[in-house]
Amino acid sequence: MNILFVSKLSQFARSVFPISKYMEVGKQLGHQVALYGEQTNEPPPLPYSLNTKAFDVAIFVIYESWDFPDMPYLAQLLDGIPRERRFIIDCCGRYNDTLRVEHDFNHLEKMDGHQGWEWVEGFEAVSDTVLQPTQKPLRSSVRSFLWHAFDPASVVKLYATEQEAVRAWRSSDRDPKPYAVTYVGHNWQRWTQIRRLLEAVQPLSADFGPIVFAGSDWEKRPDWAAQLGLQGVDVDPELFARARVQIKPPIPFQEMIGFLSQGRFGPVIQRPLFNELGFVTNRVFATFCADTIPLLMLPRSLVESIYGPNAEPLRVDEDVRGHISRILRNPAPYWKAVLDTRKYLAEHHTFHHRFQQLLGILEGKA
pTM to 2 decimals? Predict the structure, then answer.
């Protein structure tokens, strides 16, 4: 099958990693997969095409309104590929009624100028088939397709046993980890969870180590958030100083797993909206590729349904400080949970699994 993805890629956000992996897997399985647009030399080196007639289906991967091509490209795309062969992956829950969870929301009228009904009608104008990365879509007409996946080939270090992992994790002589916690992500609707984490680790002993965030808008509350009156995009410089937080600029997607591996702990944090909808993101899977202990700050239902039966020790309850302290005292059970969960993800949630699921949807067999 010839598959054409439609989205705007960025090295620092959204779906560049999944799209690159779907192209890799598709090529391995004998399919032609490309991204709609003019060929570019910017990384990653992916094949582009404007020849819509050469493709059987178009898959729109939508986060923001600009993921739809501008005119005349959009018109050429819609003219070139029939409606029944166009699919939308709704990565942010736009194809729902307007939802607000804490300070988070799925329709960004103040930012992009689009009302909720515009998103719904826009999706319906493009395709009859909308997929969302959740196991339980709210709309009965929406199909479940998790989109993001686990890549076993990206695992930084393959440990045979939890004891081997603990020895490497604790080592201060050979390949020491410079950070206690590493986190990759922009400052958008994650402050509630970030503050909870920092308040918990701040009283720990000074040798716990520094924390580093790589992403945008962590230095201060961004001016645009203040001007628009948006909450959930906050910063507490005094708390950052007490918790020894360092700020680094955004890093490209191909460096993310290596960066996460520089810390002993890797928090898995999602927007309140995504937790409410049961959405998954790239971070849900990629953190398990890093050489770190994931801190699953996610709803229990999501942990159980995605990670399988062995991940429960990694889920952080209300006692964040106690959870981290228990790991520091005895990391072996937690590393066992990491290794067992990696095995479960490799059996159920790889990009090969996803690609086969996607083919079933595209061919009308699933």
Answer: 0.93
